Each structure stands twice: as C-alpha cells, then as structure tokens.
Amino acid sequence: MDVIFWASDEGQARARADGVAVAASRETFFTECDVISLQLRLYPATRGIITAADLGLMKPGALLVNTSRAPLIEPGALVAALEAGRPGMAAVDVYEDEPMGDTAHPLLNMPNVICTPHIGYVSQEEYQLQFTDIFEQIVAYTKGNPINVVNPDVLGDKLNLR
User: Fold this and answer.
1) Across 82-148, where does the E strand assignment appear?
2) Active site residue 118
3) Is 98 designated active site?
4) Which one-letter DSSP state was computed for residue 91?
C-alpha cells in the first residue's frame, strides 16, 4: 500500500522531512485514498475537522477508519456519507454518543460498517504494557513517590515527586 499523509502545515513539513509522501491538497487526499485512517487528537481546532464535503469526495470503494475520536468528524456526517455511498465502508470504535448503548444506531446496523467498543487498539502486548505501567504507578504512589503525575499541584507537599 502506498501511504499518503495529510495534516497541518507543520505536520506535513515533518512528514516530508521524514521522506513520507504528502498529498498535493486536502481534496486530493480525500479523492485518491482507498483507506483513510484518522490518527489525531481531539482539540477545539480538530473538532469537526473532517466534514461531510470531505467524506463526499471519497471513492465509493474507500474505507474510513476512525479509532481516534468521533467528534473529529462533523456530527451526523459519517452516517449520511455512508448512506450516500461515499465512502463505501467504515471501521469505527468511537461514537458521537459514548458509551454506545443504542442498538438501533445506524452505524451498528449498516452492512458496510465494522464497529468495536473503543478497543480496536487492543492486543495482548498492549494490555501487558499498560497494566505494567499502571501497577508501577500504584506501587510508587503507595510508597509516597508517585510517578507520571500530570497535575502535581493537587498533591501539594504531602508526597515526594520525581
């Protein structure tokens, strides 16, 4: 598979510096790709970054994969695009309303969509890595030396932070 990259100007510059192909334009990216996998974080600037118009540019045989965050796609746009046949398929493990409890939700009932419950990344190796990290953090905390603390101010001077 040929891999083509599209991102912010800064991201494109990094990709080019690393020798990765970058699409000539956003429109070219959506019209030419057979598979698009969303790999970005959700920030105010990325909310709705994939629009109905973008999805409408995709090939009828194209696959959109979203294992990042559902709000990266404009609300309602994915279902409408799939019903219109562009893209032709999707694989998702993130949803506009989570946890997904509505068994009548269109995505869960479309034959051209694969849905998983936000565990598409899971492998035995990944679980082992995560649980090892979590265990080490719990042990360090109980010994009064927490690690990987995102907001140390909440702990005050009670504990010794690394």
Assistant:
1) 89-92, 113-115
2) yes
3) yes
4) E
